[in-house]
Design brief:
329 residues, mainly beta, Tachylectin-2, Chain A, four-stranded antiparallel beta sheet, 3 helices
Length: 329
């Protein structure tokens, strides 16, 4: 295991060199569309294990977003699968990012985004059990849908417990009441509104006292009118170093860069209003192919931050990597 030595600070946390990270989960195939990533990491102090959620994806022609998994590790680098589910278990065209949470009562929760087969819109459901291995897609509960927020899609939850409340940061596609008839027909025809160019990818917030019944609070971070991230500003992780919230977010300039986002940085003093620091370009990129570094997840431990992230390889595939950065708590 290695620790990155060339660090930059943006906001209240040190960043890392994505090209120096260790491969955690290898790409499932070669070439564009073969991706593994969209991670969520959790350290369980009771067992001493690090748990990692991730999804496996094939090229669209072969069946996108086909499987999600949870793996466990003693060292945070070498993982063994303890749970998996395929999109058929949800009756869905695609599964995407989920977020692992262990409640104060010791229950395990997986907040999972997938395409609703009823209307082809992204939604978020909850799986809950006594152990990660016992999570059952057949017993999931609805958490947040496009209709709940008056939008066209909601996905990629980032959930944390703060002040007795569950905060759920999500990617959302706002409504388009001004859309033409042709745009409305096209919007959900491929079961992925984010890949149409008709709507942009924003970040919003929902709150809940129990982690089940959420109230929509609205926007946290929207794409600017111009710039490298004018199409997508999707917060992927949050770190709190009082009094600053630092967010890493996935940014892209157009629908052509969808699935190949790069990482930017934004900050907030209240956790509700974020300002971008990376105005002129992304903070984290790959030297290969599209340059994509996306879905960065920050797991803060006592003496370090472990960053898990999706990383573009020379052949256009994506693998899941980890970079460790010293950071005393």
């Amino acid at each position: 295991m290695t620790t990155d030595t060339a660090l930059r600070w943006l906001g209240g946390v040190p960043l890392f060199d994505p090209s120096q990270g260790s491969t955690v989960i290898a790409s499932p195939g070669q070439g564009p569309g073969w991706w593994v990533g969209a991670p969520s990491a959790l350290y369980d102090r009771e067992s001493g294990l690090t748990y990692l959620y991730y999804r496996v994806r094939k090229p669209r022609a072969l069946g996108r977003g086909g499987e999600c998994r949870i793996a466990a590790s003693r060292d945070g680098l070498n993982f063994e699968t303890v749970w998996s589910a395929k999109k058929d278990a949800f009756g869905s065209p695609s599964i995407e990012r989920g977020c692992l949470v262990k409640t104060p009562e010791g229950r395990w929760r997986l907040y999972l985004s997938f395409v609703d087969p009823a209307d082809d819109r992204w939604r978020i459901d909850l799986l809950e059990a006594d152990t990660p291995e016992a999570l059952d897609p057949g017993e999931r509960r609805k958490i947040l849908t496009a209709a709940d927020i008056g939008g066209e899609g909601v996905k990629d939850p980032v959930v944390y417990l703060l002040g007795g409340l569950y905060w759920m940061v999500v990617s959302y596609a706002p409504g388009r009441p001004d859309a033409t008839a042709a745009e409305k027909a096209q919007m959900h025809a491929t079961a992925d509104v984010y890949n149409t160019g008709i709507v942009k990818s924003h970040t919003g917030l929902a709150l809940s006292p129990d982690g089940v019944h959420f109230r929509w609070e609205g926007d946290l971070l929207s794409p600017p009118d111009t710039g490298w991230d004018r199409y997508c500003t999707r917060i992927s992780t949050l770190l709190y170093t009082p009094p600053v919230w630092t967010a890493l977010y996935d940014g892209s300039g157009s629908v052509e860069e969808n699935y190949e986002e790069r990482a930017g940085v934004a900050v907030s003093l209240d956790g509700c209003h974020f300002e971008r620091l990376t105005l002129n370009g992304p903070a984290l990129t790959s030297p290969h192919a599209s340059g994509s570094v996306r879905y960065v997840e920050a797991l803060r431990l006592d003496t370090e931050i472990r960053y898990y992230y999706e990383f573009a390889l020379p052949d256009g595939s994506h693998e899941l990597r980890c970079s460790r950065v010293p950071f005393p708590g």
